[in-house]
Amino acid sequence: MGKRAVRDALKAGETWPDPGSSPIGPEKKTKAQKKLTTTGERLDELQEALYAEGADGGGRSVLLVLQGMDTSGKGGTVGHVLGLVNPMGVRYAGFKAPTQAERRHHYLWRVRKRLPDPGQIGVFDRSHYEDILVPRVEKLVPAGEWRRRYAEINAFEREVAESGTTIVKVFLHISPEEQLRRLRARLTTPSKRWKYSSADLEARSKWDDYQRAYRDVLRRTSTRHAPWYVVPADRKWYRNWAVARLLTETLAEMAPRFPQPDFDVDAELAKLG
């Protein structure tokens, strides 16, 4: 598989892959799980090198942005993919509805505070894109206001990228049929009921509106410095493999390097006897 194979195959375009498809990579769960183990080992090596580079004064980092409808697997992706690497090098941020204190600031204020430090992989479980999607569909602000946010976010992400952060934005593409199955599972499985919210049904009732909003977001904010990728998310095992590969390809292209020691290795070994 080429250096950019998964990124090229899943990069957002006018046509999205079917939510239950495998556009590239394994088509069976068993193969995907085996490949995820191998990919995880490589991802762990690359992340450790990035972390070491940051500890030595390097300024680079990665930001993984996860967006998708309720039950698309944002939290599951974080657990299964970022669980493959050392948590010391990961900075997780889950964005819910803004608090009263956050509302007193510009909507990007709270986002800037959660960006990854040098050497880290940052993860946004939902993100600043909620500040376009929700206001648009729920009609919370005038249309002119949420439309201005496309350009504001593009400028913000360009600034972040130019400061040394490589941005990987992933839309987890789930079908309404699979979402219905997962919502039912949350209600019928006691250990999953804590995940359920009646607000999920409110958003589901506006499925088509949210899909149109997502298509516009991906079309207007997929840029050279911050591209969008569409990952089919009906099959969790494929979702996990695809996101892990996206991160691995991204880090491999960055080619982080462990810093050279600033001491004489042989002399230090001699001291140990």
Give a quick summary of the entry.
With 273 residues, the protein is of the alpha/beta class. It contains twelve helices and five strands. Helix 3 crosses helix 11.
Description of the molecule:
- This protein has 273 residues and is of the alpha/beta class.
- Helix content is 51%, strand content 12%.
- The protein has twelve helices and five strands.
- It has helices spanning 5-10, 29-55, 74-81, 100-103, 109-112, 130-138, 143-162, 176-188, 198-204, 207-221, 236-254, 265-272, and strands spanning 61-68, 90-94, 121-125, 165-173, 228-232.
- A five-stranded parallel sheet has the order 2-3-1-4-5, with helices on both faces.
- The relative contact order is 0.21.
- The mean pLDDT is 96.
Main features:
alpha/beta; 12 helices; 273 residues
The largest sheet has its strands arranged as 2-3-1-4-5
Q: Main sheet?
A: 5 strands, parallel
Number of strands: 5
Low-confidence stretches: none
Instruction: State the end-to-end distance.
Output: 46 Å
